Structures are given as structure tokens and as C-alpha cells.
Give the backbone structure.
Amino acid sequence: MSVIHHSISIADSGRTIVAIDDFSFVENEITFLFGESGIGKSLLCKALYGLLEESGLSVSVDGAAYDRHCADAWTRQVRRTSFFVFQEPSSHLNPLMRIGEQLAEGSLRGADNEREVLGRLWQDAAGGAAQRICEIYPKPYRPSGGEKQRILLAMAFKKLRLYHRDYAAGKPPTFYVFDEPTGSLDNAYRNLFLRLLFEAYAAGPFTALIITHDYSVISEMYRAHRSLLNRIHFKELVRANDGVVRLRDFSADEYLGWLRSQAPAVRGALAETEPVLTVEPSFGAFGRKLSIYGDAERRRPAPLAVRRGEIAYVKAPSGMGKTTLAKLVMGLYPADSLSMTLCGMRITHASSRSLWPREIWGKKAGMVFQHADEALDLEATVAETFTGLPLKQRFNDAAIVRLLGELFDAGEGERLLKRRVKYLSGGQKQRLNLLRSLVLDTELLILDEPLNALDFESIKRVLAMLEMKRRGGTALLMISHNEEIFDTIVDSAGVYYLGEENGNDQG
Amino acid sequence: MSALRCEDVRWAGLWFGVTAALGVWDLLFLNRPAFKRVSIGFVNTFAIAFMTAVCTLVLGWAAAVGLHGLESKGRRVRYILITFAINLARSVPQIVGILFGYIAVASFRESGAWGAGVLMFPLLALCVAVFVFPEMTDLIRERIAHFSASDFYNAMRVCGVRERRIVNLHILWRNSRIHIFNKLISVFGMAVFLLCSVDFIISVGLSSDVNEVSLPVTLGGLLATIDSKQDILAIGYTVTHPQYFPRLFFQHLQGVTVAFLIVFTLLCVHRVSTGFARRHRL
């Protein structure tokens, strides 16, 4: 077992963006790399792969100038034998070339497993669906985010086939990087990707680094790929101080043990006669008719109801309309049809739009948006993020520091107080995004992907804070892809499923 | 020293340096009455142009925020009326509009109303701003529209932050002030150009109602005086008689100074604006 060690430093105008003394991974084995968003996982991998453009950046790898690293035999060899699946599939695909052409571009042309890979990734043995995708030019809205991601994965699997074929005798070094390869995929497709990856690994080992925020892959590894656990590593990138990070072993037991210790909040603990929110099962928006179901098979339409001190969890595949439902409840989108009761107020699609700012926003209900980067004023400081909120008491710096202490390390709150939000990491922004809504004294709180971009430590803190909020009597409505965690902490009676009204969704 | 690497700072510095050097030269070689006239014209032009930028900002900001408020509250009639009024101001050629404005200002002054003398500068600035502010309104509305379509705006609203605060503080002050300031630099240049053009037109006698007696002296008005005209003609004379060129800087200083100040200022404002936009990647 040979371990590859690298020290990497990336700075911009003298300010360290990310630096690590020992970025190490085991050759010919698979490493899952966790860590909060924005800590530098992708940047370090790109630097190592030789993909960074130096303009404006000062990059050094193993103490040497970056151009020397790029010209190094290992880097050149890796770029010939390996593949980098980028985090954002839309920006990886060329909009001026058909997807089929891109799948056969450059060295990928020589791989003979395209039909097989596409057939499996689309779970379509006949290959019709995948073939139709190959004929189109990538556009922002078509194919879907999940399909684009599968196209990139197909490219990586083609490259792996080439590697196994061309280097059957002597194995040159490899460095396959999968940057958030399942960010747009539901659990079924994520598991399919893992299965394909391990099948390829069984054909011949290679080095792979999988960057992810999805800690539930650990459970999946223990559930379906136990035999490979001795070839798998879980690592986490953690912050040492400003810009400097270190890699630590992440114990699978840490996550699995914590998960086992979680118990669902019992519904009805603070039961009252009237729920805080009730949404009738059938509703429509943007010409689509959707329905809320009480069962995973989507046969039994049920009104979504959440009382004080309860959690309701809405599940659906990507793009089905979970966020749309949340925004309809919050009056941010016009509904074609909607009937709900919120804090005793009967609201329909015909209700006046002025009702929400007058009666609901920040007073009776609040919402945490999915992408902290887009939901926060990046030019404001951390302290300024809390100004203007309808709070009962004046919120001074000391109170803000105390609040930050709930989700940030000791002393971190004071240090960040005057820092502009744009200079925070993705994980820090997400925690700030959550705190801004959690500080409100509302009866209902809607959380859209609250665990986005967070490391495990932060996930635990956020869930503890949500639990405190729930115990305090707030009704919580959750929307999340992180099914494993929310299936554990939410009572099954509080789980709702979203689907097309006619039941034709392809989830 | 690092500031000098920025194109906008460099050009602003150049403008100050060259203008100061010109002032010293004029002090030494321009006769006293002419020096006084040029100095007053210079100060008046820049004071009115500065006030124009301020008025444009106030009018543009108020109109854009007002329209956004009316739009979000669904008050269609008032929204259409204000939009119509703004488009009406936009449709009038700026120089024509300002000329009419000047007539109104001059008659106000001649009426001898209390405060007419004090109010001349802001009134003239307002005349120019009325025909320039639609551009500022467009920019501010564009910024509001851009952020209103993003989660940023809605995420704050659902937290109970007041709409007025989100628009004025978060969208316009924190996230758009660079864009707005850049527009103000252009407005300042535009105001200098319009003031000089209109004052020149007035001063050559196209209007009997408005004249340099009833309005403050500006660089445009000075350029139209007979002395300046002769100085400008002298510049042309040097094309065929190059040996005459050095005498421009001693015998024809008033016209040359005024013409140079106008052209050099407009060039510098243009370069400052371009450099500022480039530095802030607008």
C-alpha cells in the first residue's frame, strides 16, 4: 500500500486561499473526502491534477512552482490515464456540441462500452432514453441536472474502460477525481453510481478521490459493499486556521454510531387541536398539478399537517417541486390552485399577496433558503446580517456572538462578527443562513436543504439546534435530499411525498 | 503608489495636476479681469455640474424606488403615470429641454422673487438633471430587478426584513453603489458638456429672454465672448503660421484656457469613468 503525500498552497494577492501540509491518499484505493463547502476540497484536487490557471493565483505543490508540477511525469501521466468529473455538470459540457459527440471526444472515442454504460446509468437496457439524450445539445434546462451528471459519470466510466484495456500489463499512476458526483442524483442513482464504480474497481484497481457532502454513502458502503471496506478510506478536510486546512481520518463509526443514537421526535408531543400549517393535498403552480401523498407509493393523497413542536418532512425526486411547495406556502410564487391554513388563517390561491408581508413573513412563519450563497447579502458583515429582523429585543454584538456560538466554534463568532459574508466558506455561510431564520420567533419554520454544504460536526450542531427549536414549540417543515438522516429523526407519520397529481412522476 | 496603477486614479490625478499648473500659468500671464472671469466660470461650471449629479441621484433613486414600490403593491395607474412622465422627459432632446428650463429660471430671477439669487445654481442643476435622470432611474431599476429575481431578496423578505430596507440598504447601497457612482461620474461629464453647450448657445445671442446677465457665468458662456472667439481663431491661424504658436500661451490665454479646460475635463471624466468601470469589473 503506497501512500502519496503532497503539500499544496494556493494564495491570491498574498492571501492564503487554501494551504495543506499533507494532502495524502492511498494509491490504487478509493478515498471519500468530506468537509464543509468552500474549505478547498475541489481547489486542492484541481491543483494536484494540474487544472488550475495561475493567472492571479500563486500556487505551489510540494514546495515547487506550479508549472513544474504540471510538467512533472506523474501529473502528465495522470492526465493521460484518468478523468476529472467536475462538480457543476452544466459547466463541463460544451453547449455547441451534441452530447453524443462529447461522449466520444478525444481519447474517449476508443472506449467500446458507451452503450453499456449509458444503458446502465439510465437503467434502460434498450438504450432508447440514453440515445435520445445523445442527440441533443446541452442547454441550461435540458437535459436535467441529474442527466448531465450521469453523462459526466459515463465519460469517467469510458475512461476507466480504456485504462483497463490499454494498461493491462504495466499500470501507470491514476488519479480519478469525482467532485460531488451525486449532488444532483437521488439515492437510487447514487447507489447505482457506487455499484458501477466498484465493478470497475474490481476489473483493476485505480486511485479515486470522491469529494462529497453526503455522509450517507458510509451507510451504503456498509450495507452493500462491505467486502471493499479494506480498500476504502474516509477522510475529512478540516480548518486549522485561516486558509490552512488539514486532512483527518473520518471514522465511519462516528457517523453510524451517531445515526443509531438518533430517535424520531414523537408527533403529537405538543399536540393542539389545530395544526400550525395544513396544506390540502392537491395544488397547482406554473401549469403543473401536484399532490401531497402520505405514502411512498403515492397512492394515498393526504393533507400536509404540522403542529407546534412537530417536524414534517417532504420527500420527492429533484425537480418535482419541493421548493415550489415551500415558496407557495410562503407566498413567494403565485399558485394556480392552493388551499391551506396557516396559523389559523385560511389562505387560497386567490388570497391577496399583501397578506404575507403584513401578517406572515418573520412574524408567523420564516424560511431558510436552499443556497446560502444566493440567500445572503454577501456585501454585508456577519453582524449586519441580523439587522432589520423583526426581533422583540434589540440584538447587539454580544447577543450575536452568543447566537453564533450555537453553530460556530468558541471564539469563531467574535472573529467573524465584522467579516463580510462573501469571505466566509460555503459551510459558514450556510450556518449563518440558518441562524438568521432560527433567531426569529415564528410558529412555523420551513427549511429547504438545511444540511447543504455542512461538515459532520456542523450537521450535528444544526440538528441539535433544530431539536431545541422544536421542543420550544416551533413547527418545522423540512425539505432535504438527505433522506437517511431525516428518515431517522422524523416520525414516519410526519413524512410526506410529493408527486404529479396523476401519479405519473418518474421519481 | 499602488493607487496610481489604477487608470481612474491616474487620470483624476492628471486632471488636478494639469488644471493646477494651468491656474498658475494663467495667474502669471493672464490679465487680472480675464483671470477672474475664467476662475468664476470654472468654479460655476463645476459647482452646477456637481449639483446636477446630486439632483440626478436624488431624482433617479426616488423614481426607481417609487416605481418598484408601486409595482410590487400593484398600483398600476400611478405606476403608468410616473413611467409616462419619465419617458416624456427622456423623449425631449436634452439641449432643447435645458434651454426651455433656462428660460423658466431666467424669468424666475427677473421676477425678483425672494431667494432667486441664492437658488440660481440648484435651479440650473435641476434643469439639467430633469433631462438626465431617466438614465439613472434605468440603472437603479435594473439593479433592483436583478436582485429582486434572486433568492437574496426573497430570503430577506420572508425573514420579515422590511422591503424599503432591502431595496435601499441591501440592494442599492451595499450591492450597487459602485455602479451608481460610476454612473454619477458620467453624469458629471454629461452635465459639463450640456452646460457648456447650452451656455454657448445662449451667449451667442440665440435667446433674448436668457442671457449671461441673468445667468451665472460658465465656461460655455465664456467661450462665446468676443475675446475667446478671437483666441480660438488664433489657434486656427497657427496652422498656416506655426511661428505664431508660442504666442497662444501668452496673448490668447483666455480662449485657449477655456477651450482646453472643457475638452481636457471631458476627456479626463471619460477616462476616469472607463478606468473605474474596469477596476471594479462593471
